[in-house]
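Escalation from tier 1.

The customer reports that the assembly of two entities below gives different structure tokens on two consecutive runs. Tier 1 could not reproduce it. I'm attaching the input and our single run for tier 2 to review.
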Amino acid sequence: MTKDFAVPPVVFPTGGSSGGANVQQRRFSAIPFQQPPPQSSSQIPFLSFNMGSAAASSATTAGPFGGTIASSSSFGGGGGGSPSFEDEEPLLDELGIHPDQIWKKTRSILNPFRINQTVHKDSDLSGPIFLYLALCLFQLLAGKIQFGVILGWIVVSSIFLYVVFNMLAGRNGNLNLHTCTSLVGYCLLPVVVLSAVSLFVPQGAGPVKYVLAGVFVLWSTRACSTLVVSLADGGEEHRGLIAYACFLIYTLFSLLVIF
Amino acid sequence: MYNNMGPQPGMPMHQGIPQPGMPMHPAIPQPSPFGNPFSGPGSGLIRSGLGAYGEKIFGSSSEYVQSNISRYFSDPQYYFQVNDQYVRNKLKIVLFPFLHRGHWTRISEPVGGRLSYKPPIYDINAPDLYIPLMAFGTYVVLAGLSLGLYGKFSPEALNWLFVKGMVGWFLQVMLLKISLLSLGSGEAPLLDIVAYAGYTFTGLCLAVLGKIIWGYSYYVLIPWTCLCTGVFLVKTMKPVLFAEARSYDSSRHHYLLIFVALAQFPLLIWLGNISVNWLF
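Tier 1 run:
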């Protein structure tokens, strides 16, 4: 004897592919949360559930596996309404990460003798985050867990460089903190290379490590001071003074690597 | 004796004056270019923050707050007007004060009715904040290096060294400030005293560098550094003390100056003793 259920059983809509005898359409009730207005396609499309049309649109794309995958994809993919999934911006663009720009900037620092300054004109922080993670990874391979230490030191040293540069440059100094952090982060690349290389230097070779560290620190310093002086006004006659500040910063990071 | 400017083509302020070496009387009173702390970088923050505070307390006029702040915390921009030559010459004076043949008084110029001192580029005796800041940073880095060479490096140890350096700087400032206060009104700007106190880190860096290169040189360099720092501080504080003193009591002045010089020895020995336990 069949019981009467309060909730009708779920029947997955199969569209026109099969007409079942006992197909009972589940009535999709009104969604309790607010639906965004259909004309705002710039809103987060993820939440714009519209069950009825979702079922209809997914039913057209569904194959013989029909309803299950279609309904789950309509739940997971969102954008069932007017802002559809294909119209969304790519994720990286939305986050502001441009991999080709990051690669260009990183490659410009790889050459220690000629640094292309125009490519660093617009600053971003995602490249420095990648380099920071790479440095932390190499330190982890060396057995040192220093995630917080390195992040804190990057922040402190970029504030230090910002203060020193703007004070030295005087009235027409216009380095801003975002650019400063971006430059300090990108010029950390030689230190990342140093930490990778020092994984392979044998344990007892002390002086070799110091000489190696010295070379990479000088590379870093040269890159950073050239970029800082060329990207912000007012620093030309204080190159040596700013270069010494950068030298201090990168020696500090190299201490983390070699000891 | 020290000509920091060198040949400068087209400097707008020197058209009527011959090359400024150590001029006794400037021929044309020059407007002090960066005397106002409320222009220049960071001034927006200062002006808006303090202005709002001042308006809240004093109604419409915020000049009262502004003038008070500039009395206690003079314009930091002044202390960063340096160039390479100034830095080199100043380091020579700080590390070898015996060899300085010129005089030790600062050159003052009348500006808008008040007497203000020339910025560091034009006057070798003016204090600056760049050298103390860099010397402090070098001290922390070198101390970390020496810790690492003994195998005891860790980031926490470096943080403790930073704290130790700050405490040492603070103690030095207190020493100078108390000797000023006990004699006169102590009207010298705070940043001046911070700058003078920070010059001790240059000699200290030399001593720590010597310790890294060859261990026994440390026992020669530390007394030398203490002596040099003592002489430098005495020679710089003498005109300041004599200018600020209300009553001319010569023996007290001299005892205080000797005390300042002698107090360098325990302070610098404590700062130079780099170990994991930061207190001693």
